[in-house]
Batch of 3 targets.
Target 1
Amino acid sequence: MGFQVEIPEQPKRIISLVPSQTELLFDLGLEDRVAGITKFCIHPAEQIKNKPKIGGTKNFNFEEIAALKPDMIIGNKEENYQVGILQLKENYTVWMSDISNLVEATEMIRQIGVITNTFKPAQKIIHQILTGFQDLNYPDKIPAAYFIWREPFMSVGQDTFIHQMLDLSGFANVFADYNRYPEITPEQLQAAQPAVILLSSEPYPFKEKHLPELKNLCPNALIKLVDGEMFSWYGSRLQYAGAYFQELRKAITSAL
């Protein structure tokens, strides 16, 4: 989805198509310049309540977008759909991120800071993120399976942002030989022999009731519910991820 765009000198009516980048805009102090968001944008909860919704991340309401008269639209290659983005590009300035690791995440934050003339707040957020991650040092990785979906079970491959978050937080992804988001059979899970199974809160909302199903498949594995936002949101929420990962790793190490 690579294309060059001319950015307005200081965009004043921004539509965000990605939840984690929506939160970033608010944390940069741009609440008054956010013209629209998706129905999946949930943070910050109070400020987003009255913002117009333009559909989902993969099904835009083009009439609503037109009515909002945006001078800039911010999306993401993975979270949005190419057909919709190309249609938007015909009429609007569309800026896209493409993120698979922490370096690319902080660079996205820096670029949005430059584009929106909020460079100093962006640098502060980046500093807080990197400070939180610098204390993560786990040479002994715990073999782990991370699931994002059920029926079928879906995990994460080596080329995903979540994979790097697993690595940085001290876990060895047992499905690292796969790419993207592979479907995993019960037999594949059993063969992988994870010491830990991490069940994400999103996109599938895993709950306590799902633990016995996995325990039956892998009776020797520790099964734990985790905050999916910490593993997959690559905006300003990363400020809290380092501390979360430290506590998670500590709790799991104690339980094994």
Target 2
Amino acid sequence: MQEETEKKIAEMLFQQREEEFERASFDREIAFYESIGAGDMEMMRFFAAPLFCEGCGVLSKDALRNLKYHFVVTAAMIARFCIKYGMTPEMAYQMSDMYIMQADECHTEREVREVHRKCLEGYTKKMQIVRNSRIYSKKIVMAITYISEHLHSHISLEEVAEYLEISVSYLSRAFKQETGMNFNEYVNREKVKAAANLLLYSEYSDLEISNLFGFSSQSYFIKVFQKYMEMTPKAYKKRYRVSL
């Protein structure tokens, strides 16, 4: 019996190596769940695809059932991380139950993946509200949400004021009063936080990350990064980098 079990394990390991099947790294998985808890849509989308599409073990020989099982695990983990980041347990588990029931009714893998996408976006959007509504006014919540959804482009005070249909001076004053930071400082800090994740969990170079987040030059990116992280991107990567 033991020999038969060991044989099956060996066969599975061989098959995984042959198919170049790699499990998603633990650190990348944690970064994915934390991005949802933080209400960070950009980073959630960055980490989500490889986490769900690749690196998943086989829980059932039936492909559809296997996908559903993985979704149940994912939904449960998301609920726990959202509770950790401030969502009420009642809301977190209600959302989890709702999405799991939707997945259970799916008849194709494509339908399960669509429920999975809605689950990730639904939780992330809800966490944006949870993390902002307790502290900030409605307009500032909208401004912060707009910033988080446009980190990969140049974001100006004028642009956000126009989006919110308020004056530039009012937004500037209210933003400073409620967040304790001026608008540009906040934008740069959020870009640096997102850039730091890419330094650790992607193969992008400093220059590529600088361009990705709309910094005017690589040297300016390094200067801003050092201001908030107290070290250069190169030093940060060297100290905290995780092998992908």
Target 3
Amino acid sequence: MLRFFPAILILLSGLGFGMPAAGQSGTAAKPDLVLRKTIRYTDYHHLMSIPFDVPAGTVRISMRFSYTGQEQRTALDMGIQGPEGFRGWSGGDKDGFTLSLADATPSYLPGPISPGRWRLLLGVPNIRPGVVSEFSAQVYFDRSVAEEMRDPLLQLRVRSGPGWYRGDLHMHTAHSDGACKSQNGRMVPCPLFRTVEDAAARGLDFIAITDHNTESHYDDERELQPYFDRVLLMPGREITTYQGHANLFGTTRFLDFRIGTDEVPNLNAMLRRVSGLGGIISINHPAAPSGENCMGCGWLPESTVDYHLIQAVEVVNGRNADGARSGVGFWEKLLNEGNHLTAIGGSDNHDADIAIPGPGSIGYPTTVVYADNLSTPAILDGIRAGHVFVDTEGTRDRLLEYSATAGGHTAMMGDALEVKDNASIHISVHVKGADGARLALIADGVEQPATPEMTIHGNDVRTALDVAGSTAHMWIRLEVRNDAGHRLLIGNPVYLSH
């Protein structure tokens, strides 16, 4: 049996998954309770428990462990038992844990936090004769739903600093209908780690695994995130209904998807609950046909939808950047109705083995988000703000960056720009990785006449476009297209106010 000593404990807790830092996952600066135990050689190879009471209304229990004598090879094992029974055992490889209904540190089980008598389980695999070890456990009780929502999976920052971060926002695993080949070549439910492994190999900064109507995959992600410490695993799921599919990002809590029931009478009732969970919603593959081959895949709401409750639209699903199944036309229609919705893309991968550019291959397309850092809150804020472009072929280096200026005011894509007195609009553009392609300027869904400045010569190009003043346009945006007219990069609008 392997033993893990302090240096490794530090590594485990450093990502917030062995034990969240103070202020994360509901832990407070001051513990609600401190459990203490003096360990001597007479306890060697013994198991014991320390009882404590959990007050009613608690939604999360978090603990931090510490003990003396580790420099003399003292080793202690920890676990926990609730009123209904065993809730986990981490041995000596963690310096703490957190438990709630929705999530738990790997080695522990999520579930209801029942009030009453709990027991901290303690084992002593090693202590030398004559050594005395003082053990303490700081216990934190969180009593609000807001604290329960502060899952460690939502708090991790993989990388600091602002920049363009590239990710895939639509993927499936064995937790729903993802399948891949086994070692013997049979198609089997595809383990989640295969998806994460492939995303990491393709250089993605973040992914959202969006299995259908379930939260069961989040514990796998909590287990994998400390190892895959260059890829942010954003909580996601595909809310799959008979009236359409939508991805939910940024919460691990349950969202009732049963539209048409007493609990969820219509689509708007479900959407209103999303904001209370701190998440965002994106309409998936809105132009897909619905039928026996894909039930509810198209966007077919049976009642009027309040689109102010939706933040994004998946305009590219897999390889559908152009043609009848592209979501661009659907999205632009909503923009022309006055809605501010961010265009994103997702592979809709169901098999981690599919190689680029195969249909549904991971990272094809890629959603590229300008965010303050690489964390779930920052990526969500970037999507909400519309600071996003879609790389339809999932390259690692293509860039479409632009801002519009009028009357001394400047706005990047996703932002609003006030245009007074028919002032002309100056657009500054930066494009990478698209030599030989061309820019397309779209205003209110209509492509504007091409100019020589729209042809891209070189792989790192800065250029500028000027748009004559008009009080008619509600929004403008740019795309990059190849010589056949296919979309390579899809930019989000600058919204115009007059």
